[in-house]
Amino acid sequence: MCRVYVGEIVLSTSRRFQLVDITGRVEDIVSKSGVRNGMCLVYAPHATAAIIANEHEPGLMDDILDEVRRLFPPNEPWRHNRIDDNAHAHLGSAIIGASRIFPVINGRLVRGTWQNIFLVEMDGPRSRRRVVVEVMGAG
What we know:
Layout: E1 2-11, E2 18-21, H1 23-33, E3 37-43, E4 49-54, H2 58-71, H3 87-96, E5 99-105, E6 108-109, E7 116-121, E8 129-138
């Protein structure tokens, strides 16, 4: 029998560009889901944020944010900035992606030794960001 369990992570950000480690909260939702084998979708329903998996090491986290700023510089003459000053964040979300899928095996989220799950904030600070976590599979 297939189970589907949906959880939500609500968080705030404090900087324009920021990585927020949500790994523990995603793992808690997987644990509560009762799914033994299946998939876990981690999705940010925002047009100016993204989801990535990588190492939680401060130097690397700064490198990632520096590269995001380099690839999608906020001060470029983006056409969308005529409407709203956040074209860089829309581009970053579109290219990096708003979701990631992880396997669930034996009731545990499968990720590499050095892989944590991050929300990539590119249009902060924001008082409320949501991440939807949907776990699907056999119980």
